[in-house]
TrEMBL record:
This is Cobalt-precorrin-6x reductase. InterPro entries: Precorrin-6x_reduct. Keywords: Cobalamin biosynthesis, Oxidoreductase. Pathway: Cofactor biosynthesis; adenosylcobalamin biosynthesis. It comes from Caballeronia hypogeia. The keyword Lipid metabolism does not apply.
Length: 243
């Protein structure tokens, strides 16, 4: 049986982790909620770059790495690819498909933070669903705007920003209530894919509201890639039966 290192922090990763035995390791960067009901070992914290990950793979006798990090955690995915190549350890990855624009959607792509700011300049009540990044820009909010920022953890706002700490999955009903209460007129989102946070897009569509969509970073290739957690979990089960 190959010892698996699962790089996680997403719902997909947690679904895979629930099927792992005590032999294997579920690794979290430290920003996500740490589960306490898993059979596998849970490791929290960074590895110290590529060199640190290579050392960890050797010390812990890891035989397979599964990258199920967030689609925007590009640096961790690149480190995993480089470390696995150096250590000669296979790398599997869960690459969740992007959302696709539907009839009625008004999506406006941005490549980076500067592009986001440019695309929301005409609006007054933006909803940011980019995680923590907007928190670094609270002192840059124009006088014409009030930001609503949704992220995982509580954080103080200011006179021009309201911080909402919440975790998905989100429902259309809940999103409508938030949009109404905060008087949202534009949504800023990562193209994360999956169902847990998709409701905001449906509500924006039904209201004819624009969505500024932050483009995905380019991710490295993997030895084997899966579209969803269930496919990766099934492949791991088969692998354990074969080894």
């Amino acid at each position: 049986m190959k010892r698996v290192l699962l790089l996680g922090g997403t719902g997909d990763a947690l679904a895979i982790a629930r099927g792992l035995s005590a032999t294997h390791v579920y690794s979290l960067a430290g920003l996500a909620r740490v589960p306490d009901d898993l059979a596998c070992a849970v490791r929290v914290g960074g590895f110290g770059g590529v060199d640190g990950l290579v050392a960890y793979l050797g010390a812990e006798r890891i035989g397979l790495v599964v990258d199920a990090t967030h689609p925007y955690a590009a640096q961790m995915s690149r480190h995993a690819r480089e470390a696995c190549a150096i250590a000669n350890v296979p790398l599997w990855a869960v690459r969740r498909p992007e959302w696709q624009a539907q009839t009625g959607d008004d999506w406006r792509e941005a490549r980076d933070w500067r592009g986001v700011v440019e695309r929301i300049a005409e609006f007054h009540r933006p909803l940011f669903t980019l995680g923590r990044e907007p928190l670094a820009h609270l002192d840059e909010i124009p006088a014409s705007q009030h930001w609503t920022i949704r992220c995982l953890d509580a954080h103080p706002g200011n006179a021009r920003a309201t911080i909402v700490d919440a975790r998905g999955p989100f429902t259309p009903e809940g999103e409508r209530a938030l949009f109404d209460a905060a008087r949202i007129d534009v949504v800023i989102s990562k193209n994360s894919g999956g169902r847990a946070t998709e409701a905001k897009l449906a509500v924006a569509r039904e209201r004819g509201m624009p969505v500024v969509m932050l483009a995905r970073p380019e991710l490295p290739d993997a030895d084997r890639a899966f579209d969803d957690a269930s496919s990766a979990r099934d492949a791991l089960t088969q692998l354990n039966h074969e080894t």
